[in-house]
Amino acid sequence: MFEQLALLPDDPILSLIGAFLQDNNPLKVDLGAGVYKDETGIAPILTTVKAAEHKYLSEQTSKTYTGIAGDMEYNHCIEQLIFGQQHPALQAQRISTIQTPGSSGGLYLAAQLIARSNPNSKLWLSQPTWDNHYAIFASANIATAAYPYYRIGQQTIDFEQMLNTLRDEAKAGDAVLLHGCCHNPSGADLSPQQWRDLTALVLEKDLVPVIDQAYQGFAHSLEEDAYGIRYMAEHLPELIVSASCSKNFTLYRERTGSISVLSSNSKQNRSIVSQLLAIARACYSIPPANGAAIVKTILMDEASRLAWQAEVETMRQRLLAMRTQLAEQLQQKQQQVDFSYLLKQHGMFSFLPLNTAQITALREQHSIYMVGSGRISFTGLTTANIDYAADAIAAVIK
Ligand code: LMR
């Protein structure tokens, strides 16, 4: 039966982790996957996460099954982190949240939920977007189309074209995938005014946003980075949010995420949750417990929560410092490209305007790793390697 199977290429992002590990060059720099690294180049476990894990494990008495929805206390904590404690849609019980294996798991449930609700619905994705978005929605046989978002040449958001495309081509009942903050791969985010304008169009056209929130806390702050989600949840009848604790809790391999669905009323929400549980049961049964227990242990204790917020802010500040220094160094070291756009973007990623030959040269001649699109993750830069990286990037541009 397996003779017909084709050999597929490696994952364009996660395969870089293995390739980087195997490189023996002591000068190597990892600008590939979105994994936070500290000044020493280590992907750390946050101190608050380590402490919460220790507490949870020392108090754990059983490893019996949890429910399909995961840990209900975690679900409560995480939806308050996403929507804010006093959000009117939470108070009206119009939002339901279940735990998922990472945000990929949440997006998978979202795709299957859309397929069950409206199989003719098309999903609109930003051009460009995270590669895996296409694969996840294709797995549910959802038709996809791209809306213009980021002009790689000009390094800016093409908001007018985004609105025009959705206004002219999207149909009522279609879904629109948005990035809550720190757009992956461009780092170019919608302004509060653009979120409001987009919300008006989504309402007028009867579209359903699916918001991927994987980097809350890495653009401005935990509160500000939720602006778009909270505004949309206040003004729209329906919305899906898939959130991740991989980055802001450094829980990557613990697969800790959530899906929240906003609908018109709590009765509809019960049906939606029953569908999500059925989809999850047929796929992974129950989500892994460890990460969610760590997150709730932190969020339910005021002192731990404040300490965690400070750690998120430290990660954000370090990335901002690396972004600023790389932009300044590239401005000084070459004249071909104006890199000041990097300072207007947020989070772990931005594009460098490099072609395939330049990206290959960086990898083969300098052991500098990045995604083939030219997306870099600032996470792998440190004060020790930033001169080397900037010199190499400037050299291939010249
Ligand atoms: C990334 O975009 O680098 C991260 O979200 C890791 C992944 O799963 O692709």
UniProtKB/TrEMBL annotation:
Protein species of origin: Dasania phycosphaerae
One Pfam entry name: Aminotran_1_2
GO biological process, one term: L-phenylalanine biosynthetic process from chorismate via phenylpyruvate
Cofactor(s) named in the record: pyridoxal 5'-phosphate
Aminotransferase class I/classII large domain residues: 28-393
UniProt GO MF annotations: identical protein binding; L-aspartate:2-oxoglutarate aminotransferase activity; L-tyrosine-2-oxoglutarate transaminase activity; pyridoxal phosphate binding
Protein name: Aspartate/tyrosine/aromatic aminotransferase
InterPro entries linked: Aminotransferase_I/II_large, Asp_trans, PyrdxlP-dep_Trfase, PyrdxlP-dep_Trfase_major, PyrdxlP-dep_Trfase_small
Swiss-Prot/TrEMBL keywords: Aminotransferase, Pyridoxal phosphate, Transferase
